[in-house]
Write a structure and sequence with these properties.
five-stranded mixed β-sheet, Rossmann fold, 420 residues, single chain, 2 domains, RNA-binding, BirA Bifunctional Protein, domain 2, 15 helices, eight-stranded mixed β-sheet
RNA sequence: GUGGCCGUAGCUCAAUGGCAGAGCCCCGGAUUGUGAUUCCGGUUGUUGCGGGUUCGAGUCCCGUCGGCCACCCCA
């Protein structure tokens, strides 16, 4: 038996890696004053079938009929869920609402590098503020999250665009109907993939040429970007962002700013993406809740691949993974007749918050030191016939010093452990 | 969902249609209180699975499952 295609087993090492990524996500989101929330993994199919998500995501739903004849789907994204939650209790929270979640998502796609059927995503949303300052704050949160893994502006780029700039441009070209404008956006979305001939053919019905679009992309300098850039420059983060009007994103609900994060060196799929959806809450609540919102998601798969590929970020990740699985102290029972005293030492150290391991059965000292080494502990405490004295062995320096039993608690309290 | 490439030990890989191997890892041992390295020994296995061709298939053919890549799309 093996796991289903696109689903992962998390052995301790993979689990440590996952915890490093999700732990870093959580720490940075909290540092921006965001509060954690969560929702159900399984949702009514209708939540996605209504025009909220739109686009390709409908064809990628992991859906089935449950035993109560309900049509259900494993969630493919967080936005519809959080939108429902916001609509239900929007009045209870002071604005702006700043929420994040870390949760698994499911899409029924053929797996490929950077794309699985179950993946984790950090979702951050800021609701109730439609200002450029809110946009900049979200981009800063996105960038800081990347920086927390050791990624620099040489490694990644945030390609920033705005659907309003396109709408204005299209209106100037006579495309005023919103449905038609949206169709043009989906052509722009494929600008980097389709052949020029195919693009021309798709644009002709709208009275547009490929040249119209490429001219706009190359020459337009919309005001929104200047404001964003100034805000980010005040934080020293402007080097991460780049105006790129080719980004429009596939999801139907975006209304303004849209952005995606890419690896600067390699041609891999987007690491993160998001945008502004100022009308979604109103649309879903039939106008009862009318709050502007901006959000983004970061997946763990592409990000994890990138972190493993770059030497600096890999070293940082591996150090965190090692620490996440290590003990602080390994107690060596050098004299089996002192096992009870050793258990007392173990108990004391654990009560002081230290991560402690020791041999469950009588074993040769040489073997115990091998186990001590494998435990990741930086020190071994030897309990033997010199009791009530102990020996402290520094496992890296291979030096040994004496320690009186009464001094054990102070020693443990001052023990240096590697910072997470 | 469509197309291409691939599938041998836990991992990385080798074997002309002719007896299934190496390294790493793991486990045990080298005169019973100190973990590097070393030395000796041990398990590495339904060659993904099921058919077919053949005296004989890891090798050739068909199917199937799984993986990688492209399309698609995006985390």
């Amino acid at each position: 038996m093996q796991s289903l295609p696109g689903f992962r087993d998390f052995f301790p090492n993979e689990c440590a890696r996952r915890n490093y990524i999700t732990g870093t996500w959580r720490r940075i989101a909290r540092s921006f004053g965001f509060r954690e929330y969560d929702g159900p993994t399984l949702e009514p199919l209708d939540l996605y079938r209504k025009k909220n998500s739109g686009g390709e995501i409908l064809g990628q739903l992991f859906s089935f009929t449950d035993k109560g004849e309900r049509e259900v789907a494993l969630r493919p994204e967080m936005t519809p869920t959080v939108a429902r939650m916001l609509i239900a209790k929007a009045r209870e929270y002071r604005k702006p609402i700043k929420w994040f979640s870390i949760a698994p998502f499911f899409r029924y796609e053929k797996q490929q590098s950077g794309r699985l059927r179950e993946f984790l995503q950090l979702n951050c949303d800021l609701v109730g503020d439609d200002s450029s300052a809110a946009d900049a704050e979200m981009l800063a949160l996105l960038i800081e999250t990347m920086r927390a893994f050791g990624l620099t502006e040489n490694d990644i780029v945030v390609r920033v665009s705005d659907r309003r700039a396109w709408m204005k441009f299209l209106a100037g070209k006579g495309v005023t109907d919103e449905t038609k404008a949206r169709e043009v956006l989906s052509v722009i979305d494929k600008l980097e993939r389709d052949s020029p001939e195919a693009l021309q053919a798709k644009l002709a019905p709208f009275g547009l040429t490929l040249g119209d679009l490429t001219d706009f992309i190359e020459t337009a300098r919309p005001a929104f970007f200047t404001a964003l850039n100034e805000n980010l420059a005040a934080r020293g983060l402007e080097g991460f962002c780049q105006l790129d009007l080719r980004i429009v994103r596939g999801l139907a609900y975006y209304t303004g700013l849209v952005f995606e994060v890419f690896d600067r060196r390699q041609d891999r799929r987007a690491i993160a993406g998001g945008g502004r959806f100022d009308r979604l809450l109103s649309d879903l609540s039939d106008g009862k809740v009318d709050l502007p919102a901006i959000g983004f998601g970061i997946g763990d798969v592409v990000l994890g691949d990138l972190l493993a590929d770059l030497p600096d970020t890999r070293a940082k990740m591996e150090a965190a993974m090692a620490d996440g699985q290590a003990c602080d102290v390994f107690v060596v029972v050098a004299d089996e007749s002192r096992r009870n005293e050793a258990l007392g030492v173990v108990q004391l150290l654990r009560s002081l918050g230290r991560r402690v391991d020791y041999p469950l059965q009588s074993d040769k000292v040489a073997r115990q030191f091998k186990d001590a080494d494998a435990s990741g502990a930086s020190v071994a405490l030897v309990v033997g016939n010199e009791w009530p004295k102990l020996k402290v062995k520094d496992l890296k320096a291979r030096t040994e010093t004496d320690l009186a039993q009464e001094a054990l608690a102070d020693w443990a309290a001052n023990l240096q452990t590697p910072a997470p």
